[in-house]
Write a structure and sequence with these properties.
- Two copies of one chain form a homodimer.
- The first copy, chain A, is mainly alpha-helical.
- The first copy, chain A, contains seven helices and three strands; from the N terminus they run ααβααββααα.
- Chain A has a three-stranded antiparallel sheet.
- Mean pLDDT of chain A is about 80; it is low at about 1-5 and about 130-140.
- Chain A binds a DNA duplex (30 and 30 nucleotides) through helix 3 and helix 4.
Chain lengths: ~140, ~140
DNA sequence: TTAGATACTTACAAAAAGGTATGTATTAAG
DNA sequence: CTTAATACATACCTTTTTGTAAGTATCTAA
């Protein structure tokens, strides 16, 4: 009954983007997807580079939108556990798909780089070095 | 050899987000994915609400990042055809996954709305009406 | 010679997103 | 009485993204 691919696309895709949009939300979701419950502090340490402000902001949005559960333990010092809801968890495969595509795209970029010596390629490629370097840093140091 | 899920995640996921990030790129990609080649003007009409500036900007980025081909026909008036490259096309399944998730999320939102009469739910829900309305508009009008 | 079609470009403004720094509440341990 | 731990909140500023409006180039047809 709902036709014209354009319309459907316009709506449902936008909806999905409203939820995972932004710099941090996908990462938070991804991490939550790998654990049953995670405390605020653990999440903060797990999502490299995120500030407390951004973490709470992301979690609040995700909770409001129904993807995340928040469980408060009335203790001191406080303890709050976050977890994915059912729809939240149903999004994990999508995240995995994005992650895996990122992997193959990285391979592609590296292959491209070896081909074109001239810097034909753009911004993303300029970052691939840093990216790989970061990888190495962690691989060799750890 | 590359370990610590965190690191991998941090990089590859970011990479993917660099490509599909923003308000319009996913939509442009989605539409390109449904056609072999699309002219600039057709794309502009297809991606509802996009301005010419945003369209070119998106296409430039995507071309620079290797996801999109640009073929110029030396004519007057000008003719330019856009299409997906191989890696570009390999991203289509991911887009579809996002789209489908959006669909089920919409169902969830509607179900939720019928449950809670009090407006427990947040921003996304406030938009669902408009969303459905838009759908109806197109369904009934067309 | 003037208007129309197409694919852009540019300048400027508005809005959204993100970052940094600092503050709050509570209780237990020292 | 001070410090530490944890989970936030708030103010303010910077950067990034998006939008609006106008202009450019080229040939064809009227």
């Amino acid at each position: 009954m709902k036709k014209t691919g354009d319309v459907e696309f316009r709506c449902y895709f936008q909806l999905a983007m409203m939820v995972i949009g932004g710099k941090w939300k996908p990462k938070v979701l991804f991490h939550l997807g790998q654990n049953d419950t995670v405390r605020f502090g653990a999440l903060r340490r797990a999502v490299f580079g995120i500030s407390e402000k951004m973490l709470i902001q992301s979690l609040k949005d995700l909770e409001r939108d129904g993807l995340v559960n928040r469980k408060v333990y009335r203790q001191v010092p406080p303890k709050v556990e976050y977890s994915l809801t059912d729809i939240g968890r149903s999004f994990v495969p999508v995240l995995n798909a994005m992650f895996h595509w990122g992997q193959s795209y990285a391979s592609y970029l590296i292959a491209q780089k070896e081909k074109d010596h001239d810097y034909q390629t753009g911004d993303v490629l300029e970052n691939i070095d840093e990216l790989v370097q970061t990888d190495n840093e962690h691989i060799t140091v750890k």
